[in-house]
Amino acid sequence: MKKDNLDSLFDDLKGQFDxxxxxxxxxxxxxxxxxxxxxxxxxVKTPSGFHWKPLLAVAAAVVICFSVFTTLxxxxxxxxxxxxxxxxSETQDFFTVTIENELKKLNKERSPLTEAIISDALAQIQxxxxxxxxxxxxxxxxxxxxxxxxxxxxxxxxxxxxxxxVLEQIEDVKQFKINTNEPKNTI
Length: 187
Hints:
The chain is an all-alpha fold.
């Protein structure tokens, strides 16, 4: 099929090809022109002066590599309770799961009546979370100092205490609402 297409193409172009013989000394004139161009192009391509661009690129690459290396070397990875020991890892997991469960309970209790209490509690939790991030840095810098570890555990306990207290307050508010809405039967 392709051969048929080629044959038909050549049949269509028949009579349009340039089949005349070139003039005498055509080859010699072509070679002279070719030699003339190579001399000109050789003169242009001859190096003159100092090539500073490749050296500048190498210097820039060295500076970038050096700065990345020093930046990575100066920033140690922050540690948390899980990196201290297996027991501390289990402790951190326990506190994390407990806090997540308490937050889910808290979010289920959201209502216009409890919104202020919940917002305040979440703001306090956020402050404790920021403190925990600072404690992680302190733990890394101190090399697993026991005081920092106790402070981290205390931070987790404080978060749980806040959440439990808020849930109790919400129950009190709900109970108060029920009691104030009950009709009073007096005899």
